[in-house]
Design a protein that fits this description.
With 446 residues, the chain is α/β, with parallel strands linked by helices. It folds into two domains: 116 residues, Roll (Urease, subunit C, domain 1), CATH 2.30.40; 307 residues, TIM Barrel (Alpha-Beta Barrel). It is 32% helix and 22% strand. It contains 15 helices and 18 strands. Strands 1, 2, 3, 4, 5, 16, 17 and 18 form an eight-stranded mixed beta sheet that branches. Strands 6-7-8-9-10-13-14-15 form an eight-stranded parallel beta sheet. β17 and β18 form a beta hairpin. α2 packs parallel to α3, α4 crosses α7 and α7 runs parallel beside α8. The longest helix has 18 residues. It starts with a strand and ends in a 6-residue tail after the last helix. The structure holds zinc ion. The site of zinc ion has 5 residues, from loops.
């Protein structure tokens, strides 16, 4: 099997590369990278003139909902959404039913992924049994079965001593612990960010202090244990400052931010209601500014969607009762190219790092690079393509997305895994008029 991608702007932060070049793929691996490469006569040719060729994008925070909540999403639909959105790999959270707290469930997810996934799937195991926060899950067993990290995402680990033990144990297996930082006493009953808007709408607010308090505790525990802690969906300026200072002290702390926390502030709730309800909540414009700074200057390691599908029935409730969460796999890359690159002038190599090299580094994943000999996982981008987000055409089962109808500049146009184009509806994205039209023909079964 041979494929040559000609004349693309090859952008690979892992090697400090950003230049027009060809990439030759043989038997699913990157065989050569350079200008004017020779290719075997039978090689398939992709003309990438005017396109960016990047290491495959990785989303480290996705809820695939299977097993247990397949009305919301499945491994098949969630990974098709990922591939359509330009991702070659996703890490899936443990809050399924049953919870991924044992090697049995980890192996089940990996088996289902082998049968039905459109991209690579890396399971994340629970920190505590049943996400109950009372006893450690079978961390060693899950590590052996193939989890890439541990997290009780959906909740924080409230018991600091249990968190300490989890960090010590996880370090033995070189697994990062991802913490959903939400002090349960401070956040209890909260619906949206605490402030003028929560007061105006008459709903309970969630203070930023709930996040900051847990991040601060985690800084102390990282210092105590030397173990790696990754802060999920960091949303508040104060939390970012704590991570920044921890990193300056040399502590092994990393963090991710979501596209929605970078593109929206709490005022979106006034217009969108429950569609803009997520946990942590959208914060203030000042928080968004701070997050953008962290994205630009390197404190933030990854952009991760926190893709959280729900059925329309569940989400079409009043603000106070609707579940938390938004979906993002199919618009995240366009949204970030539009906002970060075109609006805020953040460099393309930095954006590629946030979506590929950064996640691969934090989670010790095999991707995130276009080095010779590595699997040919790639994401091709068209920085100038203008798209309109249309959730009706999505692969995901869910429609709970605040960006429906947004016009964006920049889009993923091809996803390659092991050198093979991922075609989610029988057509290649780059041959269709737009990626959205390409996915429109897929029948949706639920
Ligand atoms: Zn979370």
């Amino acid at each position: 099997m041979a494929l040559i991608i000609r004349n693309g702007r090859v952008c690979d932060p892992s090697q400090g590369l950003d230049k027009v070049a060809d990439i030759l793929v043989l038997d699913g691996r990157i065989a050569a990278l350079g200008e004017g490469l020779e290719a075997p006569p039978e090689a398939e040719v992709v003309d990438a003139s005017g396109l960016v060729v990047a290491p495959g994008f990785i989303d480290v925070h996705v809820h695939l909902r299977e097993p247990g909540f397949v009305a919301k999403e499945t491994i098949a639909t969630g990974t098709r959404a990922a591939a359509a959105g330009g991702f070659t790999a996703v890490c899936c959270m443990a809050n399924t039913s049953p919870v991924n707290d044992s090697p049995l469930v980890t192996r089940y997810i990996l088996d289902r992924a082998r049968e039905s996934a459109a991209c690579r799937v890396y399971p994340i195991g629970a920190v505590t049994k049943g996400l109950q926060g009372e006893a450690l899950a079978d961390i060693g067993g899950m590590a052996a079965a193939g989890v890439v990290a541990l997290s009780d995402d959906g909740h924080g680990v409230a018991n600091a001593n249990l968190m300490r033990r989890a960090l010590e144990y996880a370090a033995d297996f070189d697994l990062p612990v991802i913490d959903h930082c939400e002090n349960r006493d401070l956040a209890a009953g909260g619906v949206i960010n605490e402030g003028a808007i929560s007061t105006h709408l008459g709903v309970r607010g969630m203070t930023r202090a709930a996040e900051e308090a847990d991040v601060a505790r985690d800084v102390v525990l990282a210092s105590l244990t030397g173990a790696r802690i990754h802060i999920a969906h960091l949303s508040a300026a104060g939390s970012l400052e704590l991570v920044r200072r921890a990193q300056a002290q040399g502590l092994p702390m990393t963090c991710e931010v979501t596209p929605h926390h970078l593109a929206l502030d709490e005022s979106a709730v006034l217009e969108l209601g429950a569609v803009a309800k997520m946990n942590p909540p959208l914060r203030t414009a000042a928080d968004v500014e701070a997050l953008l700074e962290g994205v630009a200057d390197g404190v933030v390691a990854c952009i991760a969607t926190d893709h959280a599908p729900h059925t329309s029935l569940e989400k079409d409730q009043v603000l106070a009762h609707a579940p938390f969460g938004v979906v993002g796999l199919e618009c995240a890359v366009s949204l970030m190219l539009d906002r970060l690159h075109w609006r805020h002038g953040i460099s393309l190599p930095r954006i590629v790092e946030l979506f590929s090299t950064g996640p691969a580094r934090v989670f010790n994943l095999p991707g995130g690079t276009l080095q010779i000999g590595r699997p040919a996982d790639m994401t091709l981008l068209d920085l100038s393509r203008e798209i309109v987000v249309d959730t009706r055409r999505w692969q995901s089962k869910a429609r709970n997305c605040p960006f429906d109808g947004w016009q964006l500049k920049g889009a993923p146009v091809m996803t390659l895994i092991d050198g093979k184009r991922v075609t989610v509806s029988g057509a290649s994205p780059v041959e269709a008029a737009s990626p959205r039209e390409m996915v429109a023909t897929t029948s949706r079964t639920s």
